[in-house]
Predict the 3D structure of the following.
Amino acid sequence: METAEFYGITQKELSVRTGFSVDQVENVLQGKLPVTEDFALALERVLGVSAKCLITFEKNYQQQKASQASKEKIKFGKHILNAPAVQELKKRKIITQKTDDATIDAVLRFYKISEIRLLHEIQYNQKRTALRHKRNGRSDRLSLITWLRICEDKAEKIKCSDYDKKTFHKALKTVRELTVEKPKIFCKELVRICADAGVAVVWVPEFPNVHVKGATRWLTVNKAMIAMNLYENSNDVFWFTFFHEAAHLLLDKEKQFLANYSETTTSCRCIDSSEEEKANKFAECLLIPKQCESQLKKLTDRQDIIDFAAKIGISPGIVVGRLQYDKTINPEDHNDLKRTFEWQD
């Protein structure tokens, strides 16, 4: 420190006068330790240097040091710019920065990490997320995490009542009635009804190389998220997926999920589980009550399917999907009764 040198004060004498050890004085003067308020006040008394100036100088020095270190880390993260997930973020204009450094900084902020290497450490709260993954499908891990991150961001913006299991269970019966409606009607109603029960429902377009139809996770102990896409755009798959995800909330006593994908590789794959089977059964029974299942095997005629659907109060396309799944009819039979959904700007 120039003032000490000007007065010919050695580090040892400065140590005696300030009450700090020689090692502490030496490390501070060499920039190895920060200038604390106590040290700055001691120097002010000994050397007459403004403690406020010393503290401001130290703060600016540390910020400059951190900024330089951050720039160095960014240089080693440029490979992420070519990742399909990041390219998709730019395509959707979620990340709009022009320069490489600014883009990497935006990526870090999006994933809520401090440096790119930590992307490999992200588990995305895997104990709190349930996914409905295409059987035998493999998803790119970063793309999946990215899709979930967008879903979470949208869900956090939806105002919800505190989650109540009984209210949500009751709400699902009302939601079931929406299966006969068109998207322009059921979308807003579905969000409203579920929000009143503490569940934020969001739709986010599917990512390339992500074979997930839906996801459920707890945002807080009092708020849950159901995320949907149009991976398969027919209404039978859409509604079955929704009630499947809803089942995870109702069946989860501890508000913790085990994500049904493997973390052993850079890709994610489907894992069968008893929880998934229970969720499937719940969705099946809610859409087509158990007491009506015996009639399904008799349904092969188009009009019979329409009449049966009207009788139990669901869309005929859902009945067709169930009949195809049960192999009562062929995969190509009566697909015109299904509704297909498309994304709109």
The radius of gyration is 29 Å. The first strand starts at residue 129 and ends at 133. The first helix runs from residue 2 to 6. The CA atoms of residues 213 and 231 lie 6 Å apart.
